[in-house]
């Protein structure tokens, strides 16, 4: 590993190096203003034919799964670069160095991979605008969700046809409890208004709007995310829905595996390589504590509504699918229409 000189001002230095194709930026504090527009990529030069993958990492027990997921995305010609956003400041530098070394074998020499160690565990960090992003679209995803290549490609095509919308595979809904007169977080069988960060594609411009725009109002809502240590995905849904006055678009997938779902505890169909991993991974996820988790997220919706002064979330209906015969919506002539039933 060759050390690299840099003009960054770094305090509490851990390490900063290139490891073959993996750029590693790890420090306790890096003095850079993510909201400085001059530090951002010129919007006119952003690529539309590829996207940047922002994958969140925190738990050391998930590192083998994280590496597997990074390898899958690195093999795709649709991926311009991958930013692994490590959000656990207490992870030993030796562990991070080993992770960086392992990621070098995931790049195939085609895609750039960056391991970025966050200075705090704030969930807001996953939505920071970054100069390394050189595409119009970003995929924000978790380190425990595996998606088959065809479904990934279809989701990206759907974003290309709807570049202002939020596209993904995992949805939830907001609602109101009339008896208690409070917002709740729930699941509806026929409508949805919230896309989860397990897998969401949206235009990179929204990162700046989330992190840098909106003045005091957005700052106060980001503080709610830090206080609850939750709900950053709900807040991004607020930001995008408020911008486009429309809900997210649910895309059908051929095969998606959510290892953070506790229902996978006894399912070993993916082979010996996953045995003993799925239960441990599921326990780490916030959603494994479902009742408390849903209540907290309902409180987030209520607090965001109170601070913003309006409810921007909008319901969407149906699912966009890639083939005729599956119930849902299909794209025809650039429009979403009901699929033929067979």
Description:
The chain is 28% helix and 26% strand. The chain is of the alpha/beta class. Helix 5 runs antiparallel to helix 8 (290-308).
Short description:
The protein has 342 residues and is of the alpha/beta class.
Q: Which terms summarize this structure?
A:
single chain; three-stranded antiparallel β-sheet; 342 residues; disordered N terminus
Topology, please?
Blueprint: E1 2-3, E2 10-19, E3 22-30, E4 47-57, H1 63-74, E5 79-86, H2 93-103, E6 112-117, E7 135-141, E8 145-147, H3 149-161, E9 167-168, E10 171-177, E11 182-186, E12 194-195, E13 199-203, H4 205-211, H5 215-228, H6 232-244, E14 249-250, E15 256-258, H7 278-284, H8 290-308, E16 329-332, E17 335-338
Parallel strand pairs: 3-6, 4-5, 4-7, 5-6, 9-14
Antiparallel strand pairs: 1-2, 2-3, 7-13, 8-15, 9-13, 10-11, 10-12, 16-17
Helix pairs in contact: 5-8
* Range of helix content: 25-40%
End-to-end separation: 57 Å
- Provide a count of the helices: 8
Q: What structural class do you assign from the helix and strand content?
A: alpha/beta
Strand ordering within the main sheet: 1-2-3-6-5-4-7-13-9-14
Which ranges are low-confidence, i.e. pLDDT below 50, for 5 or more consecutive residues? 1-20, 27-31, 265-288
Q: What is the percentage of strand-forming residues?
A: 25-35%
Work out the number of β strands: 17
**Order of secondary-structure elements:** EEEEHEHEEEHEEEEEHHHEEHHEE
Q: Main β-sheet: number of strands, strand sense, barrel status?
A: 10 strands, mixed
Per the principal axes of the C-alpha atoms, what is the gross shape?
globular
């Amino acid at each position: 590993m060759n050390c690299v000189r840099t003009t960054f001002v770094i305090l509490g230095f851990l390490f900063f190096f290139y490891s073959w194709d993996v750029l590693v930026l790890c420090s306790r504090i890096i003095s850079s203003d993510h909201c400085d527009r001059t530090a951002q990529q010129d919007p006119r030069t952003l690529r539309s034919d590829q996207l940047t993958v922002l994958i969140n990492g925190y738990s050391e027990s998930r590192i083998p799964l994280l590496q597997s997921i990074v390898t899958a995305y690195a093999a795709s010609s649709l991926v311009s670069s991958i930013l692994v956003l490590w959000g656990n400041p207490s992870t030993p530098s030796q562990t991070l160095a080993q992770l960086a070394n392992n990621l070098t074998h995931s790049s195939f020499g085609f895609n750039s991979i960056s391991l970025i160690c966050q200075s705090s565990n704030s969930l807001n960090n996953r939505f920071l605008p970054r100069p390394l992003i050189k595409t119009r679209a970003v995929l924000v995803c978790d380190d425990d969700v595996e998606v088959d290549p065809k479904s990934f490609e279809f989701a990206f095509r759907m974003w290309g046809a709807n570049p202002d919308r939020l596209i993904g595979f995992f949805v939830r809904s907001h609602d109101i409890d009339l008896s208690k007169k409070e917002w709740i977080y729930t699941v509806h069988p026929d409508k949805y208004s919230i896309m989860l960060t397990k897998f969401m594609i949206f235009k990179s411009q929204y990162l700046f709007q989330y992190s840098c725009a909106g003045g005091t109002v957005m700052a106060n809502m980001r503080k709610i995310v830090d206080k609850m240590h939750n709900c950053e995905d709900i807040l991004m849904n607020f930001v995008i829905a408020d911008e486009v006055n429309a809900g997210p678009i649910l895309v059908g997938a051929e095969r998606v595996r959510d290892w953070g779902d506790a229902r996978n505890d006894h399912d070993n169909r993916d082979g010996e390589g996953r045995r003993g991993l799925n239960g441990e991974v599921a326990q780490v996820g916030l959603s494994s504590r479902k009742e408390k988790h849903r209540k907290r997220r309902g409180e987030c919706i209520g607090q965001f509504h109170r601070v913003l002064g309006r409810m921007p979330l909008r319901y969407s209906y149906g699912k966009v699918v890639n083939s005729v015969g599956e119930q849902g919506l299909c794209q025809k002539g650039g429009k979403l229409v009901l699929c033929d039933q067979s």
